[in-house]
Amino acid sequence: MSNEIILDAKNVKKYFPIKKGLLLRHVGDVKAVDDVTLTVRKGESLGLVGESGCGKSTLGRTLIRLYDPTAGSIQFKGEDFVALKGEALRLKRKNIQMIFQDPYASLDPRMTIGQILRQPFEIHNILEPSQRDKKVVELLETVGLKASHINRYPHEFSGGQRQRICIARAIALEPELIICDEPVSALDVSIQAQILNLLKDLQKKFNLTYIFISHDLSVIEHFCDRVAVMYLGKIVEIGSRDELFKSPQHPYTQALLAAIPRIGEGKKKIKKSLTGEVPSPINPPSGCAFHPRCSQKIDICSKKLPQLAGSNGHQKACWLYESETP
Amino acid sequence: MRFWDGVSVSTQSVIQVKNLETTFFMKSGPFRAVNNISYEIGQGKTLGIVGESGCGKSVTSFSLMQLIERPGKITNGQVILNGKDLLKLSEDEMQTVRGGEMAMIFQEPMTALNPVLTIGYQIDEQILRHKKVSPQEAKERSIEMLKLVGIPSPEDRYSNYPHQLSGGMRQRAMIAMALSCNPSFLIADEPTTALDVTIQAQILELIQTIQEKLNMTVQFITHDLGVISEISDDVLVMYGGQACEKASTVEIFNNPKHPYTAALIKSRPTLGHRVQKLTTIEGTVPAPHELPKGCPFVNRCSRAKSECKDNRPPFIEVQPAHFVACFNPV
Q1: Quick one: which of A151, A154, A150 has its CA closest to A166?
Q2: A172 within 8 A of A179, measured Cβ to Cβ
Q3: In chain B, fewer beta carbons within 10 Å around the N or the C end?
Q4: Which of residues 201-220 of A touch B (CB under 8 A)?
Q5: Residue B269 to residue A222, Cβ atoms within 8 A
Q6: B311: Cβ–Cβ under 8 A, 6 or more apart, which residues?
Q7: Closest Cα of chain B to A24: distance in Å?
Q8: Cα A198 to chain center, whole Å?
Q9: What residues of chain A, 261 to 320, have a C-beta less than 8 Å from chain B?
Q10: Which residues, listed in sequence order, are joined to residue A26 by a DSSP beta bridge?
Q11: Higher pLDDT, A32 or A3
């Protein structure tokens, strides 16, 4: 891992407007991603973790510009990615690819594997048409499939094999950054390990950078170098894997870690670590959005929004660690 | 004595399953989704059934409830609940058992609840079917159940429709429904798979607390090794419709005998135990019509011998209370 920053996102917001009535008046916003700042270094795996509805997938899609950010800036290798339009955006996109959660939904059932994997080269007009098939076979072998699979359709493959096809498609154009949105959540336990190992091998081989989105903290701990924990559209804690898992500081991270069932310790009295549910991102609670569920809340928490702060790259947004008084 | 302290007290079995066999008669030929499964669960105990998709763990539960639809059929075996063989009962008699003595929580609360009926109506319905009570008493009981499972303002929620509740709340409503007639045996089929970890912990705590209160016997089905490890007294591992291994939870996780169990535990990343590379199980779960003649795991097994191909290993006790179906155990 080098120190070169490949992706630099500042104050990124993604609001989805809520429109009501005959005139579709704008009555509010779903604040799916609310003021997120993060950097991704070349060659690392950055984990985004949180419960459903925390905005981790929306953030991933905004960073790759499947969604246009409502506000904020995204720089990809020093270039303003938000301002790109049309042809310039299309050309840049080959450097950032995405792997989706559901390999059953992300492959066109009417295209053969060969057609699916040739498409990136056709769209970007790379390689002579005659050489594309050779490249496709090479890709299939890289992800652990066989050359004979080239004329088959997606339904002939199992979930794990389909995810391998999605991975082959994502690495076809030799991108630098791949956003993996829950790539193993839909797979069986024994298949998950195969896919995780494959992604790691590819990272070494092609010096890839990953943004790895998952709700599964054990997978994140295994896979990622740095981890960002999200809650209600905001990053509440970010740090190196070792720091974050050994000494989690934000009460939400602590609760999330405590909620994970441990293997092999035998039956025990299960204690919930959090009460209540994630509030609506339409009307998030005042101050720190986590305060209604937090067991350690103090006066200021409901009044003022804490900012990410901390040293050595381990930052948290929590009033417990700040001396400021309201 | 509390039930989770690991001391096994010899209690009478509430449920006994003997040589259960469920066959699906497909156009391509019959296949056994559940093949000769036997187990029993003592009163107040929890048996966890774990396995990957297609291993037959859900079909086992549906067979116990006799909710198998054509082309599936229970082709052999006995299911003995509190001394009664359920497979000998008529459908009418079975209806009094289902939801009464024996209840089930399903994986997806959105599809298991009727979207056009209120939560309250659906719980009332079950209580009225099984208990001799007036509608007013049934309503009181329903609200009491909603309160028991921790749904805030249960009187209001009683007249809500399923879509007005969040996923966690819907699962609580399902639990309230399942428990409304004080079942002595509860089947929980992946009750937390669709939920977030923090909500999962809330639901597991709830099931455990109620189990303790009512001294209920539970069969808990999941593919999540972590969940099974924390909630069960004993674990049954299934693969390809068959039982691979059964032992106490501590034993099975620390001293797995079947190569499949051992590989499954190793292939899962565990918090705090980092490895460079995960151990994988090569290949994929065989489709039901592709099951090998011998041991179902033979084609993916690193310890397979020649006899594994042709002969089905018997399910035998290798240590006290530790059963394995393998010719070459770890």
Answers
A1: A154
A2: no
A3: N
A4: 215, 217-219
A5: yes
A6: B294, B295, B327
A7: 24
A8: 18
A9: 261-275, 277-278
A10: A19
A11: A32
Q: Which of A116, A115, A114 is nearest to A106 (CA)?
A: A116
B74, B20 contact by CB (below 8 A): yes
How many whole angstroms separate alpha carbon B127 and alpha carbon B122?
9
* Residue A201 three-state SS: helix
Q: Could you tell me the pLDDT band of residue A263, with boundaries at 50, 70 and 90?
A: confident
Q: Which tokens is B82 given?
A: 């509190």
How many Å from the N-terminal Cα to the C-terminal Cα in chain B? 35
Q: Is A179 helix (H, G, I), strand (E, B) or coil?
A: strand
Q: What pTM, to 2 d.p., does this model score? A: 0.87
Q: How far is CA B61 from the centre of its chain?
A: 6
Task: Kindly tell me if the per-residue pLDDT of B308 is higher than 60.
Answer: yes
Write down the ipTM of this complex: 0.84
At residue B179's C-alpha, the angle toward residues B175 and B185, to 5°, is 110
Q: Cα(A135)–Cα(A139) distance, rounded to whole angstroms?
A: 6
Mutation site, B9, B172, B267, B297, interface A, largest A CB count within 10 A:
B267
Give me the amino acid identity at A321: Y
Rounded distance between C-alpha atoms, residue A217 and residue A230, angstroms: 12
Residues pairing with A45 in the sheet = A210
Contact in structure between A274 and A258 (CB atoms under 8 Å): no
Which tokens is B37 given?
């499964």
pLDDT per residue as tens digits for the range A96-137 = 999 998 888 899 999 999 999 999 999 999 989 889 999 999
Q: Name residues 22-51 of chain A within 8 A of B (Cβ).
A: 51
The number of residues making up chain B comes to 330
Instruction: Report which DSSP code applies to A258.
Output: H
SS3 content of chain B, % helix, strand, coil (to 5): 35, 25, 40
Q: What mean pLDDT is predicted for residues A193-202?
A: 94
Phi, psi of A29, deg, nearest 5: -135, 145
Tens of pLDDT, residue by residue over B115-170, are 999 999 999 999 999 999 999 999 999 999 998 888 888 999 999 999 998 888 89
Quick one: chain A helix, strand, coil %, rounded to 5?
Answer: 35, 25, 40
Strand B13-26 versus strand B29-42 pairing type: antiparallel
Confidence (pLDDT) at B46: 95
User: Does B255 reach chain A within 8 Å, measured CB to CB?
Assistant: no
Q: Does B135 touch chain A (CB under 8 A)?
A: no
Cβ separation of A277 and B199 shorter than 8 Å? yes
Cβ contacts of B156 within 8 Å, gap of 6 or more? none
User: How far apart, in whole angstroms, are the C-alpha atoms of residue A228 and residue B205?
Assistant: 28
Q: Answer yes or no: is pLDDT of B4 > 60.
A: no
Closest alpha carbon within chain A to B204: A270
**Peptide bond connecting B71 to the previous residue in cis, omega within 30 degrees of 0:** yes
List the single residue in A with minimal CA-CA distance to B168.
A277
Residue B40: how many other CB atoms lie within 10 Å:
16
The b-or-e profile of B42-71 (16+ CB within 10 A means b, else e) is bbbbbbbbbbbebbbbbbbbbbbbbebeee
In this prediction, what percent of chain B has a pLDDT beyond 70?
97
Average pLDDT value over all residues in chain B: 89
